[in-house]
Amino acid sequence: xxxxxxxxxxxxxxxxxxxxxxxxxxxxxxxxxxxxxxxxxxxxxxxxxxxxxxxxxxxxxxxxxxxxxxxxxxxxxxxxxxxxxxxxxxxxxxxxxxxxxxxxxxxxxxxxxxxxxxxxxxxxxxxxxxxxxxxxxxxxxxxxxxxxxxxxxxxxxxxxxxxxxxxxxxxxxxxxxxxxxxxxxxxxxxxxxxxxxxxxxxxxxxxxxxxxxxxxxxxxxxxxxxxxxxxxxxxxxxxxxxxxxxxxxxxxxxxxxxxxxxxxxxxxxxxxxxxxxxxxxxxxxxxxxxxxxxxxxxxxxxxxxxxxxxxxxxxxxxxxxxxxxxxxxxxxxxxxxxxxxxxxxxxxxxxxxxxxxxxxxxxxxxxxxxxxxxxxxxxxxxxxxxxxxxxxxxxxxxxxxxxxxxxxxxxxxxxxxxxxxxxxxxxxxxxxxxxxxxxxxxxxxxxxxxxxxxxxxxxxxxxxxxxxxxxxxxxxxxxxxxxxxxxxxxx
RNA sequence: CGAGGCGUGGCGCAGUCCGGUAGCGCAUCUGCUUUGGGAGCAGAGGGUCGUCGGUUCAAAUCCGGCCGCCUCGACCA
Length: 491
What we know:
Structural class: alpha+beta
Shape: globular
CATH superfamily of the largest domain: Bira Bifunctional Protein, Domain 2
Largest sheet: 11 strands, mixed
Protein backbone atom coordinates (compact mmCIF):
# COMPACT_ATOMS: atom_id res chain seq x y z
CA UNK A 1 0.00 0.00 0.00
CA UNK A 2 1.72 3.11 -1.17
CA UNK A 3 -0.09 6.43 -0.99
CA UNK A 4 -2.99 6.70 1.36
CA UNK A 5 -5.88 9.10 1.00
CA UNK A 6 -6.98 10.71 4.24
CA UNK A 7 -10.51 9.63 5.08
CA UNK A 8 -13.33 12.16 4.88
CA UNK A 9 -14.24 11.46 8.43
CA UNK A 10 -10.77 12.16 9.71
CA UNK A 11 -10.10 15.40 7.86
CA UNK A 12 -12.40 16.48 5.07
CA UNK A 13 -10.16 19.31 3.84
CA UNK A 14 -7.15 17.04 3.69
CA UNK A 15 -9.19 14.35 1.96
CA UNK A 16 -10.08 16.84 -0.75
CA UNK A 17 -6.46 17.83 -1.29
CA UNK A 18 -5.41 14.19 -1.31
CA UNK A 19 -7.94 13.41 -4.02
CA UNK A 20 -6.76 16.29 -6.18
CA UNK A 21 -3.17 15.17 -5.94
CA UNK A 22 -3.55 11.40 -5.99
CA UNK A 23 -5.93 11.54 -8.95
CA UNK A 24 -3.30 13.71 -10.64
CA UNK A 25 -5.76 16.51 -11.35
CA UNK A 26 -3.55 19.38 -10.21
CA UNK A 27 -0.40 20.30 -8.39
CA UNK A 28 0.92 23.28 -6.53
CA UNK A 29 3.20 25.48 -8.56
CA UNK A 30 6.16 27.74 -7.95
CA UNK A 31 3.72 30.64 -7.72
CA UNK A 32 1.74 30.92 -4.53
CA UNK A 33 -1.93 30.35 -5.07
CA UNK A 34 -1.55 29.25 -8.67
CA UNK A 35 -1.92 25.63 -9.64
CA UNK A 36 -0.67 23.40 -12.38
CA UNK A 37 -3.62 21.68 -13.98
CA UNK A 38 -2.33 18.26 -14.92
CA UNK A 39 -3.48 16.24 -17.94
CA UNK A 40 -6.18 14.41 -15.96
CA UNK A 41 -7.61 17.69 -14.70
CA UNK A 42 -7.29 19.32 -18.07
CA UNK A 43 -9.10 16.49 -19.84
CA UNK A 44 -11.93 16.80 -17.35
CA UNK A 45 -12.13 20.55 -17.83
CA UNK A 46 -12.11 20.12 -21.60
CA UNK A 47 -15.08 17.77 -21.38
CA UNK A 48 -16.91 20.32 -19.26
CA UNK A 49 -15.99 23.03 -21.72
CA UNK A 50 -17.24 21.03 -24.67
CA UNK A 51 -20.61 20.33 -23.09
CA UNK A 52 -21.09 23.92 -21.97
CA UNK A 53 -19.88 25.36 -25.23
CA UNK A 54 -22.42 23.26 -27.12
CA UNK A 55 -25.15 24.50 -24.82
CA UNK A 56 -24.08 28.11 -25.31
CA UNK A 57 -24.22 27.68 -29.07
CA UNK A 58 -27.61 26.04 -28.88
CA UNK A 59 -28.85 29.11 -27.05
CA UNK A 60 -27.51 31.41 -29.74
CA UNK A 61 -24.15 32.49 -28.36
CA UNK A 62 -20.85 32.96 -30.16
CA UNK A 63 -17.34 32.86 -28.80
CA UNK A 64 -15.02 35.85 -28.90
CA UNK A 65 -11.86 36.85 -27.15
CA UNK A 66 -10.95 40.07 -25.37
CA UNK A 67 -7.61 41.20 -23.92
CA UNK A 68 -6.02 39.87 -20.80
CA UNK A 69 -5.08 43.42 -19.82
CA UNK A 70 -7.47 46.14 -18.83
CA UNK A 71 -6.49 49.80 -18.51
CA UNK A 72 -6.58 50.65 -14.85
CA UNK A 73 -8.93 53.56 -15.42
CA UNK A 74 -11.60 51.25 -16.85
CA UNK A 75 -12.07 49.55 -13.56
CA UNK A 76 -12.84 52.86 -11.91
CA UNK A 77 -15.79 53.61 -14.16
CA UNK A 78 -18.38 51.52 -12.41
CA UNK A 79 -18.38 52.44 -8.75
CA UNK A 80 -19.50 49.17 -7.21
CA UNK A 81 -17.37 47.19 -9.58
CA UNK A 82 -14.24 48.99 -8.38
CA UNK A 83 -15.13 48.37 -4.81
CA UNK A 84 -15.62 44.70 -5.45
CA UNK A 85 -12.46 44.03 -7.40
CA UNK A 86 -9.89 46.73 -6.68
CA UNK A 87 -8.53 44.90 -3.66
CA UNK A 88 -7.57 41.82 -5.62
CA UNK A 89 -5.95 43.01 -8.82
CA UNK A 90 -2.58 42.13 -10.29
CA UNK A 91 -1.17 45.38 -11.69
CA UNK A 92 1.25 45.68 -14.58
CA UNK A 93 3.42 48.78 -14.23
CA UNK A 94 6.45 48.20 -16.45
CA UNK A 95 7.21 46.66 -19.81
CA UNK A 96 10.88 45.76 -19.47
CA UNK A 97 13.39 44.24 -17.13
CA UNK A 98 17.00 45.22 -16.72
CA UNK A 99 19.94 43.86 -14.81
CA UNK A 100 20.07 45.03 -11.28
CA UNK A 101 23.00 47.50 -11.08
CA UNK A 102 23.73 46.33 -7.55
CA UNK A 103 24.62 42.91 -8.88
CA UNK A 104 22.24 40.00 -8.87
CA UNK A 105 18.96 39.55 -10.61
CA UNK A 106 16.66 41.71 -12.63
CA UNK A 107 14.65 44.84 -11.98
CA UNK A 108 11.83 46.56 -13.82
CA UNK A 109 13.50 49.16 -15.99
CA UNK A 110 12.37 52.54 -14.60
CA UNK A 111 12.42 53.95 -18.13
CA UNK A 112 9.79 51.44 -19.15
CA UNK A 113 7.15 52.58 -16.70
CA UNK A 114 3.75 52.49 -18.38
CA UNK A 115 1.78 55.68 -18.99
CA UNK A 116 -1.18 53.95 -17.47
CA UNK A 117 -1.07 50.82 -15.39
CA UNK A 118 -2.72 47.74 -16.78
CA UNK A 119 -4.53 45.29 -14.62
CA UNK A 120 -4.80 41.62 -15.33
CA UNK A 121 -8.52 41.01 -15.78
CA UNK A 122 -10.32 39.78 -12.69
CA UNK A 123 -13.42 39.68 -14.94
CA UNK A 124 -14.00 41.32 -18.29
CA UNK A 125 -17.11 43.47 -18.09
CA UNK A 126 -15.18 46.72 -18.44
CA UNK A 127 -13.01 45.87 -21.42
CA UNK A 128 -15.94 44.21 -23.14
CA UNK A 129 -18.35 47.07 -22.61
CA UNK A 130 -15.76 49.46 -23.92
CA UNK A 131 -15.77 47.40 -27.11
CA UNK A 132 -19.55 47.05 -27.22
CA UNK A 133 -19.90 50.80 -27.30
CA UNK A 134 -18.42 50.67 -30.77
CA UNK A 135 -20.52 47.72 -31.87
CA UNK A 136 -23.90 49.10 -30.89
CA UNK A 137 -25.64 52.01 -32.55
CA UNK A 138 -29.16 50.85 -33.08
CA UNK A 139 -31.69 48.40 -31.71
CA UNK A 140 -30.94 46.50 -34.90
CA UNK A 141 -27.45 45.74 -33.53
CA UNK A 142 -28.98 43.92 -30.59
CA UNK A 143 -28.83 41.50 -28.99
CA UNK A 144 -25.14 40.70 -28.74
CA UNK A 145 -24.69 37.20 -27.37
CA UNK A 146 -21.01 36.58 -26.74
CA UNK A 147 -19.05 34.19 -24.60
CA UNK A 148 -15.35 33.97 -23.97
CA UNK A 149 -13.22 31.18 -22.57
CA UNK A 150 -10.43 32.76 -20.63
CA UNK A 151 -8.20 32.87 -17.62
CA UNK A 152 -8.66 35.52 -14.97
CA UNK A 153 -6.65 36.59 -11.96
CA UNK A 154 -7.92 37.55 -8.54
CA UNK A 155 -5.28 38.16 -5.91
CA UNK A 156 -6.79 36.00 -3.21
CA UNK A 157 -5.48 35.96 0.31
CA UNK A 158 -6.18 32.32 0.76
CA UNK A 159 -6.38 29.70 -1.93
CA UNK A 160 -7.42 26.08 -2.32
CA UNK A 161 -6.80 23.92 -5.36
CA UNK A 162 -9.65 24.39 -7.85
CA UNK A 163 -11.98 25.98 -5.30
CA UNK A 164 -10.11 29.23 -5.11
CA UNK A 165 -6.90 29.87 -6.99
CA UNK A 166 -5.39 33.21 -7.92
CA UNK A 167 -5.54 32.39 -11.58
CA UNK A 168 -8.42 30.30 -12.80
CA UNK A 169 -9.97 29.22 -16.06
CA UNK A 170 -13.56 30.05 -16.77
CA UNK A 171 -16.04 31.18 -19.32
CA UNK A 172 -17.75 34.51 -19.11
CA UNK A 173 -20.79 35.33 -21.16
CA UNK A 174 -21.51 38.99 -21.85
CA UNK A 175 -24.71 39.92 -23.54
CA UNK A 176 -26.29 43.19 -24.60
CA UNK A 177 -30.02 43.67 -24.99
CA UNK A 178 -32.65 46.11 -26.10
CA UNK A 179 -34.93 45.75 -23.15
CA UNK A 180 -34.79 45.05 -19.49
CA UNK A 181 -37.18 42.13 -19.88
CA UNK A 182 -35.06 40.53 -22.54
CA UNK A 183 -31.92 40.85 -20.41
CA UNK A 184 -33.61 39.33 -17.40
CA UNK A 185 -34.87 36.51 -19.57
CA UNK A 186 -31.32 35.90 -20.78
CA UNK A 187 -29.99 35.93 -17.22
CA UNK A 188 -32.50 33.29 -16.24
CA UNK A 189 -31.96 31.24 -19.37
CA UNK A 190 -28.24 30.98 -18.67
CA UNK A 191 -28.86 30.11 -15.07
CA UNK A 192 -31.00 27.27 -16.34
CA UNK A 193 -28.21 26.20 -18.71
CA UNK A 194 -25.87 26.01 -15.74
CA UNK A 195 -28.37 24.10 -13.66
CA UNK A 196 -28.92 21.64 -16.49
CA UNK A 197 -25.21 21.19 -16.93
CA UNK A 198 -24.68 20.66 -13.21
CA UNK A 199 -27.47 18.15 -12.92
CA UNK A 200 -27.31 16.27 -16.18
CA UNK A 201 -23.57 16.27 -16.80
CA UNK A 202 -22.00 16.62 -13.38
CA UNK A 203 -24.78 14.61 -11.68
CA UNK A 204 -24.77 17.35 -9.08
CA UNK A 205 -28.15 18.60 -7.90
CA UNK A 206 -28.34 22.36 -7.43
CA UNK A 207 -30.63 24.94 -5.92
CA UNK A 208 -31.49 27.77 -8.27
CA UNK A 209 -31.88 31.08 -6.59
CA UNK A 210 -31.20 34.78 -6.33
CA UNK A 211 -28.48 36.31 -4.19
CA UNK A 212 -29.23 38.84 -1.51
CA UNK A 213 -27.85 42.35 -1.98
CA UNK A 214 -24.79 41.66 0.11
CA UNK A 215 -23.81 38.59 -1.92
CA UNK A 216 -24.49 40.19 -5.27
CA UNK A 217 -21.83 40.56 -7.97
CA UNK A 218 -20.11 43.94 -7.85
CA UNK A 219 -21.98 46.00 -10.41
CA UNK A 220 -25.02 43.77 -10.85
CA UNK A 221 -28.66 44.58 -10.25
CA UNK A 222 -29.45 40.96 -9.54
CA UNK A 223 -27.26 37.90 -9.22
CA UNK A 224 -28.78 34.50 -9.86
CA UNK A 225 -26.89 31.44 -8.77
CA UNK A 226 -26.83 27.71 -8.47
CA UNK A 227 -25.81 26.35 -5.10
CA UNK A 228 -24.67 22.80 -4.48
CA UNK A 229 -24.13 20.90 -1.28
CA UNK A 230 -20.84 19.18 -0.72
CA UNK A 231 -20.54 15.92 1.20
CA UNK A 232 -19.49 17.73 4.35
CA UNK A 233 -22.72 19.70 4.31
CA UNK A 234 -21.16 22.96 3.21
CA UNK A 235 -22.54 24.95 0.31
CA UNK A 236 -20.61 25.73 -2.83
CA UNK A 237 -21.64 28.40 -5.28
CA UNK A 238 -21.30 26.60 -8.59
CA UNK A 239 -22.28 29.25 -11.08
CA UNK A 240 -23.66 32.75 -11.32
CA UNK A 241 -25.69 34.68 -13.85
CA UNK A 242 -26.00 38.42 -13.44
CA UNK A 243 -28.57 40.89 -14.60
CA UNK A 244 -26.44 44.03 -14.89
CA UNK A 245 -29.21 46.48 -15.71
CA UNK A 246 -27.75 49.49 -17.48
CA UNK A 247 -24.87 49.91 -15.06
CA UNK A 248 -22.03 49.03 -17.41
CA UNK A 249 -23.69 50.69 -20.40
CA UNK A 250 -23.82 53.90 -18.41
CA UNK A 251 -20.25 53.54 -17.20
CA UNK A 252 -19.02 53.01 -20.77
CA UNK A 253 -21.49 55.32 -22.43
CA UNK A 254 -23.05 52.61 -24.53
CA UNK A 255 -26.35 53.88 -25.94
CA UNK A 256 -28.49 52.82 -28.85
CA UNK A 257 -31.40 54.31 -30.76
CA UNK A 258 -34.46 52.36 -29.82
CA UNK A 259 -37.57 51.60 -31.83
CA UNK A 260 -39.10 54.85 -30.63
CA UNK A 261 -36.13 56.71 -32.09
CA UNK A 262 -34.83 57.66 -28.66
CA UNK A 263 -31.39 57.14 -27.19
CA UNK A 264 -31.34 54.50 -24.50
CA UNK A 265 -28.67 52.69 -22.52
CA UNK A 266 -28.12 49.05 -23.38
CA UNK A 267 -29.27 46.33 -20.99
CA UNK A 268 -26.67 43.77 -19.99
CA UNK A 269 -26.04 40.37 -18.51
CA UNK A 270 -22.94 38.41 -17.62
CA UNK A 271 -22.59 34.83 -16.43
CA UNK A 272 -19.78 32.47 -15.63
CA UNK A 273 -18.60 29.15 -14.36
CA UNK A 274 -15.03 28.23 -13.62
CA UNK A 275 -12.60 25.42 -12.90
CA UNK A 276 -14.11 25.55 -9.45
CA UNK A 277 -16.65 23.12 -10.88
CA UNK A 278 -13.93 20.48 -10.76
CA UNK A 279 -13.71 21.02 -7.02
CA UNK A 280 -17.48 20.74 -6.82
CA UNK A 281 -17.42 17.51 -8.77
CA UNK A 282 -14.84 16.00 -6.45
CA UNK A 283 -16.65 16.98 -3.29
CA UNK A 284 -20.01 15.79 -4.57
CA UNK A 285 -19.19 12.22 -5.56
CA UNK A 286 -15.78 10.99 -4.54
CA UNK A 287 -15.07 8.59 -1.71
CA UNK A 288 -12.20 7.57 0.54
CA UNK A 289 -10.67 5.43 -2.18
CA UNK A 290 -10.34 8.28 -4.64
CA UNK A 291 -12.08 10.24 -7.32
CA UNK A 292 -15.47 9.23 -8.70
CA UNK A 293 -16.38 10.75 -12.04
CA UNK A 294 -19.79 10.86 -13.66
CA UNK A 295 -19.56 8.92 -16.94
CA UNK A 296 -20.73 11.81 -19.10
CA UNK A 297 -17.69 13.86 -18.10
CA UNK A 298 -15.12 11.15 -17.47
CA UNK A 299 -12.21 11.47 -19.89
CA UNK A 300 -12.00 7.69 -19.91
CA UNK A 301 -15.30 5.92 -19.29
CA UNK A 302 -14.07 2.36 -19.52
CA UNK A 303 -10.59 1.01 -19.01
CA UNK A 304 -9.67 -2.51 -20.06
CA UNK A 305 -6.93 -4.25 -18.09
CA UNK A 306 -5.52 -7.32 -19.82
CA UNK A 307 -4.17 -10.07 -17.60
CA UNK A 308 -1.69 -12.69 -18.74
CA UNK A 309 1.50 -14.49 -17.81
CA UNK A 310 2.85 -16.38 -20.77
CA UNK A 311 3.48 -15.14 -24.26
CA UNK A 312 0.76 -17.27 -25.78
CA UNK A 313 -1.67 -15.91 -23.21
CA UNK A 314 -0.64 -12.39 -24.01
CA UNK A 315 -1.46 -12.87 -27.66
CA UNK A 316 -4.98 -14.13 -27.13
CA UNK A 317 -5.75 -11.80 -24.23
CA UNK A 318 -4.58 -8.67 -26.03
CA UNK A 319 -6.44 -9.74 -29.11
CA UNK A 320 -9.62 -10.08 -27.07
CA UNK A 321 -9.00 -6.78 -25.28
CA UNK A 322 -8.57 -4.98 -28.58
CA UNK A 323 -11.70 -6.53 -29.94
CA UNK A 324 -13.73 -5.43 -26.92
CA UNK A 325 -12.21 -1.97 -27.12
CA UNK A 326 -13.10 -1.71 -30.77
CA UNK A 327 -16.70 -2.76 -30.14
CA UNK A 328 -17.10 -0.27 -27.32
CA UNK A 329 -15.51 2.54 -29.26
CA UNK A 330 -17.83 1.84 -32.16
CA UNK A 331 -20.69 2.25 -29.72
CA UNK A 332 -19.41 5.68 -28.74
CA UNK A 333 -17.78 4.76 -25.45
CA UNK A 334 -14.55 6.51 -24.42
CA UNK A 335 -12.47 3.43 -23.80
CA UNK A 336 -8.83 2.49 -23.57
CA UNK A 337 -6.80 -0.65 -23.12
CA UNK A 338 -3.99 -0.37 -20.63
CA UNK A 339 -1.58 -2.94 -22.00
CA UNK A 340 1.48 -1.58 -20.22
CA UNK A 341 3.69 -4.36 -18.98
CA UNK A 342 5.55 -2.03 -16.67
CA UNK A 343 2.70 -2.24 -14.19
CA UNK A 344 0.84 -5.22 -12.88
CA UNK A 345 -2.93 -5.66 -12.94
CA UNK A 346 -3.42 -5.02 -9.23
CA UNK A 347 -1.50 -1.79 -9.50
CA UNK A 348 -3.66 -0.69 -12.41
CA UNK A 349 -6.87 -1.55 -10.59
CA UNK A 350 -5.92 0.81 -7.82
CA UNK A 351 -4.66 3.48 -10.14
CA UNK A 352 -7.95 3.67 -12.05
CA UNK A 353 -9.98 3.63 -8.88
CA UNK A 354 -8.05 6.58 -7.53
CA UNK A 355 -8.52 8.35 -10.84
CA UNK A 356 -12.24 7.70 -10.89
CA UNK A 357 -12.69 5.79 -14.14
CA UNK A 358 -16.37 4.71 -14.02
CA UNK A 359 -16.02 1.17 -15.35
CA UNK A 360 -13.11 -1.23 -15.36
CA UNK A 361 -13.01 -4.39 -17.41
CA UNK A 362 -10.45 -7.10 -16.82
CA UNK A 363 -9.77 -9.77 -19.41
CA UNK A 364 -7.60 -12.78 -18.65
CA UNK A 365 -7.16 -16.25 -20.13
CA UNK A 366 -10.17 -17.58 -18.22
CA UNK A 367 -12.38 -14.88 -19.69
CA UNK A 368 -11.08 -15.36 -23.19
CA UNK A 369 -11.87 -19.05 -22.99
CA UNK A 370 -15.44 -18.41 -21.87
CA UNK A 371 -16.07 -15.27 -23.90
CA UNK A 372 -16.49 -13.15 -20.77
CA UNK A 373 -15.01 -10.06 -19.15
CA UNK A 374 -14.83 -9.09 -15.51
CA UNK A 375 -16.59 -5.78 -14.86
CA UNK A 376 -16.15 -3.50 -11.86
CA UNK A 377 -18.10 -0.28 -11.32
CA UNK A 378 -16.37 2.58 -9.55
CA UNK A 379 -19.58 3.58 -7.78
CA UNK A 380 -20.17 0.16 -6.23
CA UNK A 381 -18.06 -2.46 -4.51
CA UNK A 382 -17.54 -5.87 -6.05
CA UNK A 383 -17.24 -7.16 -9.57
CA UNK A 384 -19.24 -9.19 -11.98
CA UNK A 385 -18.53 -11.58 -14.82
CA UNK A 386 -20.36 -10.57 -17.98
CA UNK A 387 -20.45 -11.94 -21.49
CA UNK A 388 -18.59 -10.22 -24.31
CA UNK A 389 -21.75 -10.87 -26.28
CA UNK A 390 -23.82 -7.69 -26.30
CA UNK A 391 -21.26 -5.90 -24.17
CA UNK A 392 -21.57 -2.45 -25.78
CA UNK A 393 -25.27 -2.29 -24.93
CA UNK A 394 -24.59 -3.56 -21.46
CA UNK A 395 -21.84 -1.02 -20.86
CA UNK A 396 -23.97 1.78 -22.23
CA UNK A 397 -26.68 0.90 -19.75
CA UNK A 398 -24.21 0.63 -16.90
CA UNK A 399 -22.74 4.05 -17.66
CA UNK A 400 -26.19 5.57 -17.64
CA UNK A 401 -26.99 3.79 -14.45
CA UNK A 402 -23.87 5.16 -12.80
CA UNK A 403 -24.65 8.67 -14.02
CA UNK A 404 -28.16 8.47 -12.62
CA UNK A 405 -27.06 6.71 -9.47
CA UNK A 406 -24.54 9.41 -8.65
CA UNK A 407 -27.17 12.09 -9.07
CA UNK A 408 -29.69 10.20 -6.96
CA UNK A 409 -27.16 9.63 -4.22
CA UNK A 410 -26.13 13.29 -4.16
CA UNK A 411 -29.75 14.42 -4.16
CA UNK A 412 -30.66 12.07 -1.34
CA UNK A 413 -27.70 13.32 0.65
CA UNK A 414 -28.72 16.92 0.10
CA UNK A 415 -32.31 16.29 1.05
CA UNK A 416 -31.31 14.46 4.18
CA UNK A 417 -29.17 17.47 5.10
CA UNK A 418 -31.74 20.16 4.36
CA UNK A 419 -33.88 21.27 7.27
CA UNK A 420 -36.58 23.81 7.95
CA UNK A 421 -36.01 25.74 11.11
CA UNK A 422 -38.07 28.51 12.68
CA UNK A 423 -36.23 29.24 15.88
CA UNK A 424 -32.84 30.93 16.09
CA UNK A 425 -31.47 28.68 18.82
CA UNK A 426 -32.54 25.64 16.83
CA UNK A 427 -30.94 27.23 13.78
CA UNK A 428 -27.58 27.53 15.49
CA UNK A 429 -27.89 24.08 16.91
CA UNK A 430 -28.76 22.59 13.53
CA UNK A 431 -25.76 24.21 11.90
CA UNK A 432 -23.40 23.05 14.60
CA UNK A 433 -24.73 19.52 14.80
CA UNK A 434 -25.49 18.77 11.16
CA UNK A 435 -24.27 21.57 8.93
CA UNK A 436 -26.16 21.30 5.69
CA UNK A 437 -28.79 23.61 4.27
CA UNK A 438 -31.28 25.36 6.48
CA UNK A 439 -34.45 26.92 5.11
CA UNK A 440 -35.52 29.68 7.43
CA UNK A 441 -37.38 32.95 7.46
CA UNK A 442 -35.52 36.21 7.07
CA UNK A 443 -36.85 39.72 7.33
CA UNK A 444 -35.05 40.87 4.20
CA UNK A 445 -32.67 43.33 5.85
CA UNK A 446 -28.89 43.32 5.37
CA UNK A 447 -28.49 43.99 9.09
CA UNK A 448 -30.15 40.76 10.13
CA UNK A 449 -28.24 38.86 7.46
CA UNK A 450 -24.94 40.29 8.68
CA UNK A 451 -25.69 39.52 12.27
CA UNK A 452 -26.56 35.92 11.50
CA UNK A 453 -23.40 35.60 9.48
CA UNK A 454 -21.30 36.98 12.26
CA UNK A 455 -22.86 34.87 14.93
CA UNK A 456 -23.12 31.59 13.04
CA UNK A 457 -20.79 31.84 10.03
CA UNK A 458 -23.79 30.90 7.92
CA UNK A 459 -24.69 33.04 4.95
CA UNK A 460 -27.80 33.30 2.88
CA UNK A 461 -26.77 31.24 -0.10
CA UNK A 462 -29.76 32.35 -2.06
CA UNK A 463 -33.43 33.08 -2.13
CA UNK A 464 -34.53 29.84 -3.80
CA UNK A 465 -36.61 30.19 -6.92
CA UNK A 466 -38.29 26.80 -6.53
CA UNK A 467 -39.41 27.37 -2.97
CA UNK A 468 -43.06 28.33 -2.58
CA UNK A 469 -43.93 31.55 -0.88
CA UNK A 470 -44.79 31.02 2.73
CA UNK A 471 -45.26 33.83 5.17
CA UNK A 472 -43.57 33.61 8.51
CA UNK A 473 -41.47 35.49 11.01
CA UNK A 474 -37.76 36.19 10.93
CA UNK A 475 -36.21 33.75 13.36
CA UNK A 476 -33.97 36.43 14.82
CA UNK A 477 -36.00 39.66 14.80
CA UNK A 478 -39.54 38.31 14.57
CA UNK A 479 -40.25 40.69 11.70
CA UNK A 480 -42.51 39.42 8.94
CA UNK A 481 -41.05 37.34 6.11
CA UNK A 482 -42.56 36.36 2.79
CA UNK A 483 -40.58 33.24 2.16
CA UNK A 484 -37.88 30.98 3.41
CA UNK A 485 -34.33 31.56 2.28
CA UNK A 486 -31.43 29.12 2.10
CA UNK A 487 -28.80 29.39 4.79
CA UNK A 488 -25.56 27.41 4.95
CA UNK A 489 -21.93 27.63 5.79
CA UNK A 490 -20.16 27.89 2.51
CA UNK A 491 -16.86 27.43 0.74
C1' C B 1 -3.32 40.33 7.54
C1' G B 2 -3.91 37.10 12.32
C1' A B 3 -3.01 32.02 14.45
C1' G B 4 -0.63 27.35 13.91
C1' G B 5 2.65 24.09 11.35
C1' C B 6 6.53 22.88 8.08
C1' G B 7 11.18 23.43 5.04
C1' U B 8 16.48 17.05 5.28
C1' G B 9 17.65 12.42 -2.08
C1' G B 10 11.78 12.63 -6.87
C1' C B 11 7.69 11.94 -2.80
C1' G B 12 6.54 11.09 2.54
C1' C B 13 9.27 11.30 6.96
C1' A B 14 13.01 10.27 11.28
C1' G B 15 17.27 12.56 13.18
C1' U B 16 17.32 18.63 16.23
C1' C B 17 15.82 18.40 23.19
C1' C B 18 21.56 15.83 24.99
C1' G B 19 26.53 19.31 18.34
C1' G B 20 30.91 14.63 16.25
C1' U B 21 29.79 15.33 9.39
C1' A B 22 22.91 11.99 7.27
C1' G B 23 19.04 7.59 7.88
C1' C B 24 14.13 5.02 6.89
C1' G B 25 9.77 3.93 3.67
C1' C B 26 7.99 4.63 -1.23
C1' A B 27 9.80 5.72 -6.04
C1' U B 28 14.17 4.95 -9.55
C1' C B 29 18.07 1.60 -11.97
C1' U B 30 20.13 -3.75 -12.78
C1' G B 31 19.28 -9.07 -12.43
C1' C B 32 16.30 -13.33 -11.45
C1' U B 33 11.55 -15.09 -10.09
C1' U B 34 6.61 -13.09 -10.83
C1' U B 35 1.70 -10.99 -13.16
C1' G B 36 -6.80 -12.46 -11.63
C1' G B 37 -6.13 -6.44 -6.14
C1' G B 38 -0.72 -1.54 -5.22
C1' A B 39 4.91 -8.37 -6.32
C1' G B 40 9.38 -10.98 -3.90
C1' C B 41 14.51 -11.49 -3.36
C1' A B 42 19.47 -9.67 -4.30
C1' G B 43 22.24 -5.58 -5.59
C1' A B 44 22.89 -0.25 -7.11
C1' G B 45 22.48 5.09 -7.82
C1' G B 46 20.85 9.63 -5.75
C1' G B 47 20.78 14.53 -0.65
C1' U B 48 25.42 18.32 2.72
C1' C B 49 19.82 19.10 5.50
C1' G B 50 15.24 26.52 2.58
C1' U B 51 18.71 30.80 2.89
C1' C B 52 22.22 34.33 5.01
C1' G B 53 25.07 35.18 9.17
C1' G B 54 26.88 33.96 14.23
C1' U B 55 28.85 30.57 18.25
C1' U B 56 32.25 26.22 18.20
C1' C B 57 38.01 22.27 17.09
C1' A B 58 33.29 20.54 14.95
C1' A B 59 26.42 22.63 13.20
C1' A B 60 20.77 19.27 9.96
C1' U B 61 21.28 19.83 15.39
C1' C B 62 22.63 25.86 19.33
C1' C B 63 21.59 31.53 18.42
C1' G B 64 19.81 35.55 15.12
C1' G B 65 17.93 37.55 10.48
C1' C B 66 15.53 36.60 5.94
C1' C B 67 12.74 33.66 2.35
C1' G B 68 9.17 30.12 0.97
C1' C B 69 5.13 26.76 1.44
C1' C B 70 0.86 24.42 3.83
C1' U B 71 -3.43 24.40 7.18
C1' C B 72 -7.07 27.27 9.90
C1' G B 73 -9.50 32.31 10.20
C1' A B 74 -10.97 37.36 8.09
C1' C B 75 -12.02 38.43 2.20
C1' C B 76 -13.79 36.17 -2.20
C1' A B 77 -16.06 32.41 -7.57
